[in-house]
Design a protein that fits this description.
By secondary structure, the chain is α+β, with helices and mostly antiparallel strands. The protein is built from two helices and two strands. It has a domain at 25-66. Helices cover 62% and strands 15% of the residues. Strands 1-2 form a two-stranded antiparallel sheet.
Length: 66
């Protein structure tokens, strides 16, 4: 269990460091992502991006399990 937590933390750190390059791919600004901006208020919910990342990770884990 501890090993998985360390690996998960390392993956999150790497994703955070790679975010400037990942954002250039268009992730976070896909059609279906909800963005509301008003004077003094901003709300952003990346639903489509979350679904895409979830599907890709599910496929990767499914392939690694076989």
């Amino acid at each position: 269990m501890a090993r998985w937590l360390i690996i998960s933390g390392a993956v999150l750190i790497l994703a955070g460091l790679a975010w400037p390059w990942i954002s250039k791919l268009g992730l976070g600004h896909l059609p279906g992502d909800i963005s509301i901006e008003r004077k003094g208020f901003g709300f952003y919910f990346p639903i489509t991006t979350s679904l895409l990342i979830s599907a890709v990770l599910s496929l990767i884990f499914w392939l690694l399990r076989k």
